């Protein structure tokens, strides 16, 4: 597969721009696996965490998911540069990219032969130790420049260094085109100083762009500018929670091909808790309940995620279950597409769950979690550990959890624990690159949202935790949730308002019945063949019938649950058929009535003999 010709991959400028001088030897592509449209490709390449660096050797003809060269979460630029150099050097002589000059050190004797001879170009020699990367970086920095060749030599030949007057390393020795030579004089012996000095030499200039095989740049038009949705920051938007849930189930978790062991346990526990505590639309809650029942009754210790996705996508056409398959950030929208969004919604989701557990403690009865005040926190901890794509975030969160999560004794304390730790994260990220300039990282709730939460003791700010708890219990509960911008049927007026507004913003006609994505989803729903479930059933031999039965029983059960009348269950299709039959039979009866009336009139006329 040609990594560079796929138009769906957005190439972000960060790494690309930093390494643009090297791009004829090694091209950098950045794929944002947080973008929903990249989900399929990230799944195909098995990207579970970011940053993940994958290396693809030059001239590879067969499909490969790349090499995880030196795995680890170190994203320091220095380390990334060195990894790239190691990777380039790991090519054989024949398979090395043609534009990549030799990176190995040359012998000191080769240099001596260049002295006092005319040459068409400058030759710069970086003298360094064997562990240094400076020489190789300078070589790569100058591959797009003409009239200069850069080589490196190791400091092992002391006599030679002495002869050249080199007393410290790394140093750079320059041979001019006329054969004269000497040490270059720069302020600091750093790669950037060497490179910029060499680039500024008279006659050294960039090669013409047409001479360089440049990678395709990101298609700027592909970045969709979404219409801004007005919102009230004092409210919680169901659109954020549902979009977050959609992203979590269909994108983040779906990068895992199968769930087993601790991951499966975490997923099951997460679904159990969210099915009981999610304060949302009936179709969403029903979907979560169906998923939970299915997971509980499925006697497998390994589940392909496709099977779960089939249920989430309702491939079995169970009536009354639905979760939006589109992202609509409202309170979580960012001023740029790469800001906020899912991570914001994930925080909101878990805050909502801790608050729901505190205000509805009975909701978890019969789940095995009823007596555990840390239940939501512990499940969140495991979720973040196993599934949250941001590895560094997960590490930070785990450190906080280790420190004090065990000390949480009540459901109210759990609400406050998460609030406090979220503020710690806010504090740490204030001024960070990930901060949205429109939504600064502040200690939350701010005084305008909750004046009573803030106190001052001896001139110092302090939180009134009782008020904070009260505020959180209001903010993250049903009465504070707005359904504006959601697709569900609850509060249809508000949905309409949101929808019409967005359509107006985009200058689009009023939507007749469903958008393109909805239709796609409907299409999916109509696809009664459940690929994942088939796979699951096929892969699990003897238990296949049990698995199938479970699905069928869920299906059957759900059909029964849709509308209950006199103890008999009717699905939506049953109800529609009833209406059609009712109308048809009424029409039939009316026609029969008029038919017999006409007939009896004719009879009366024919046999009527007035008495004479
Ligand atoms: C568990 C976790 C750990 C993370 N760790 C990191 C990390 O280490 N490094 C990193 O760069 N990013 C991290 N992130 C992402 C980061 O915290 C933000 O989510 C992201 O930067 C988007 O910020 P935001 O402006 O949308 O506000 P967010 O911090 O995401 O907050 C979302 C919303 O929650 C509400 N809120 C804010 N503070 C609180 C609070 N204290 N209590 C209750 N509600 C609150 C507000 O309404 C806010 O708009 C983490 C995310 C999660 C879920």
UniProtKB/TrEMBL annotation:
Residues 498-522 are annotated as: Disordered. It comes from Pelodiscus sinensis (Chinese softshell turtle). Its cofactor is FAD. Residues 335-444 form the ERV/ALR sulfhydryl oxidase domain. The lineage of its organism: Eukaryota, Metazoa, Chordata, Craniata, Vertebrata. Its EC number is 1.8.3.2. It is an enzyme of class 1 (oxidoreductase). One of its GO terms (molecular function) is flavin-dependent sulfhydryl oxidase activity. One of its GO terms (biological process) is protein folding. Keywords: Disulfide bond, FAD, Flavoprotein, Membrane, Oxidoreductase, Signal, Transmembrane, Transmembrane helix. Residues 498-521 have a biased composition (Basic and acidic residues). Gene3D superfamilies: ERV/ALR sulfhydryl oxidase domain, Glutaredoxin, QSOX sulfhydryl oxidase domain. It comes from the Eukaryota. Pfam families: Evr1_Alr, FAD_SOX, QSOX_Trx1. This is Sulfhydryl oxidase. Catalyzes the oxidation of sulfhydryl groups in peptide and protein thiols to disulfides with the reduction of oxygen to hydrogen peroxide. GO terms for cellular component: extracellular space; Golgi membrane; nucleoplasm. Belongs to the quiescin-sulfhydryl oxidase (QSOX) family.
């Amino acid at each position: 597969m040609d990594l560079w010709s796929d138009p769906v991959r957005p190439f972000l400028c960060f790494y690309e721009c930093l390494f643009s001088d090297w791009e004829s030897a090694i091209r950098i592509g950045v794929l944002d696996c947080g973008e929903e449209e990249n989900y399929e490709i990230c799944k195909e390449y098995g990207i579970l965490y970011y940053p993940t660096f994958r290396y693809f050797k030059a001239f590879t003809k067969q499909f490969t998911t790349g090499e995880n060269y030196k795995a680890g979460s170190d994203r320091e630029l220095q380390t990334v540069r060195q990894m790239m150099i190691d990777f380039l050097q790991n090519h054989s002589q024949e398979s090395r990219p043609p534009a990549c000059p030799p990176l190995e050190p040359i012998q000191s004797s080769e240099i001596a032969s260049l002295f006092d001879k005319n040459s068409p170009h400058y030759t710069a020699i970086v003298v360094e130790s064997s562990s240094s990367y400076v020489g190789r970086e300078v070589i790569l920095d100058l591959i797009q420049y003409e009239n200069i060749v850069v080589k490196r030599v190791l400091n092992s030949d002391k006599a030679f260094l002495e002869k050249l007057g080199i007393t410290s390393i790394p140093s750079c020795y320059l041979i001019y085109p006329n054969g004269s030579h000497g040490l270059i004089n720069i302020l600091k012996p750093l790669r950037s100083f060497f490179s910029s000095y060499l680039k500024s030499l008279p006659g050294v200039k960039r090669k013409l762009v047409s001479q360089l095989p440049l990678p395709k740049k990101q298609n700027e038009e592909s970045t969709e500018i979404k219409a801004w949705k007005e919102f009230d920051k004092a409210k919680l938007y169901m659109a954020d929670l549902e979009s977050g849930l959609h992203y979590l189930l269909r994108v983040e978790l779906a990068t895992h091909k199968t769930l087993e062991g601790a991951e499966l346990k975490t997923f099951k526990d997460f679904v159990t808790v969210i099915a009981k505590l999610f304060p949302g639309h009936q179709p969403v809650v029903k979907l979560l309940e169906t998923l939970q029942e299915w997971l509980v009754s499925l006697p497998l210790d390994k589940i392909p995620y496709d099977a779960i996705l089939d249920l989430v996508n309702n491939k079995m056409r169970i009536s009354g279950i639905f979760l939006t398959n589109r992202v609509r950030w409202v309170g979580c929208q960012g001023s740029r597409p790469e800001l906020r969004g899912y991570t914001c919604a994930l925080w909101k989701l878990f805050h909502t769950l801790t608050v729901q557990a505190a205000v509805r403690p009975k909701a978890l009865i019969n789940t095995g979690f009823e007596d555990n005040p840390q239940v939501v926190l512990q499940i969140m901890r495991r979720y973040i550990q196993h599934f949250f794509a941001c590895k560094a975030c997960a590490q930070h969160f785990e450190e906080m959890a280790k420190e004090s999560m065990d000390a949480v004794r009540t459901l109210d304390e759990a609400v406050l624990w998460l609030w406090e730790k979220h503020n710690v994260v806010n504090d740490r990220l204030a001024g960070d690159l990930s901060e949205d300039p429109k939504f600064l990282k502040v200690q939350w709730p701010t005084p305008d949202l909750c004046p009573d939460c803030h106190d001052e003791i001896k001139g110092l700010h302090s939180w009134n935790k009782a008020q904070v708890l009260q505020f959180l219990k209001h903010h993250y509960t049903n009465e504070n949730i707005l359904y504006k911008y959601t697709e569900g049927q609850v509060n249809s007026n508000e949905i309409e308002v949101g929808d019409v507004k967005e359509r107006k913003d985009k200058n689009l006609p009023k939507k007749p019945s469903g958008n393109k994505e909805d239709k796609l989803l409907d299409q999916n729903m109509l696809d009664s063949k459940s690929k994942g479930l088939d796979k699951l059933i096929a892969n699990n031999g003897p238990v296949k019938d049990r698995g199938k039965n479970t699905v069928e029983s869920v299906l059957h059960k759900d059909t029964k649950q849709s509308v209950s009348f006199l103890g008999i269950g009717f699905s939506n299709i049953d109800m529609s058929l009833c209406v059609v039959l009712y109308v048809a039979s009424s029409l039939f009866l009316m026609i029969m009535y008029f038919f017999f009336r006409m007939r009896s009139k004719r009879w009366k006329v024919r046999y009527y003999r007035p008495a004479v």
